[in-house]
Amino acid sequence: MRHLDLYDVLAVAARVLRCDSDEAVRRTNLDTVQRVLSDVRRTGGLAEASAALLAGLVRGRPFDGANRVVAVAVVLQFTALNHADLRLEPVAEVDEVLDRIAAGDASGVADFVRERLDEFDDWMGRRVGMYERFTELARKVVILAQEEARQLNHSYIGTEHVLLGLIGTAEGGASKLLAATSASAVRELVIEIVGRGQRSPDGFVPFTPRAKATLEDSYLEARRLGSEDIDTEHLLLGLLKDTDGVAAQVLSRLGVEIDAVRSLTEQRIDRRKRSRTAVEAMVAGDPDWTTYGRRHHLIAELHAVLDENERLHEQVAKLRDLLRKNDIDPDL
Questions:
Q1: Can you give the pTM of this predicted structure?
Q2: DSSP H helical segments within the chain, as ranges?
């Protein structure tokens, strides 16, 4: 079992309290947090450890402001670190347990957690099957998201890191759709919104429940649009679906029209699907193009042509707008 340290807890507190790391330290009773973390290390299984963490932070009230919210967020981070997810529904039952803990009654908390704890098989917090459906470029996005989290000293991977991974994967379709959004501008806003962590994490960097939900949504979007594989465009659609995540906040503040990008993304996926179907139908009966490698090469070449056509179309549209602004009818 992997345990949180004081820096991990402070990073979560800073994010929930929307303050920088220094203020998070000032607003946290460090001795109480250290005592709770020591108690957690003396427990057995993950459910027991999570329960001890939750009960200790709720009773000890080490955080100045939103103590319960910070406590729950810390527990979610702890379970994610150990490849598990803690379901917090129904909310009324969670509130009831937190009320009992605050009143001094922590009995049954471990059972409550155990009933809602989903432990997963793979490092993404999902069943291995979904990750195997990721294309090579989609996997690169995940790897870059981990690197972005490390560079920002974050002990978690959030939607903001996935966004940076999409922009950083220049070969992917999502990066082309976000071409007007620079990685440096996104990174600056991420730091402004959630701050930097205290130190670069060691080993595995877990996904937050919100980021895992984004990956799940990407899978659902792929299926909805008729694909068994999850590509960068599907990851982008999953990201755009979470309008309350940090990634969506960043895009909105940069002036990105979420609905417009979503529409363009779906159009791109549909165009790719139709071109692939057409090419595969065209070469199906040709003995010179029956191998997967030859078909894949032809489709890649066609996609390159389509990309170039898209750029030309954008340039023509801009030229037409410029002519109209100068009172020239582009259709004459």
A1: 0.54
A2: 6-17, 21-26, 30-41, 46-60, 67-81, 91-102, 109-116, 128-132, 136-151, 159-168, 173-177, 183-194, 209-224, 232-241, 246-253, 258-283, 292-325
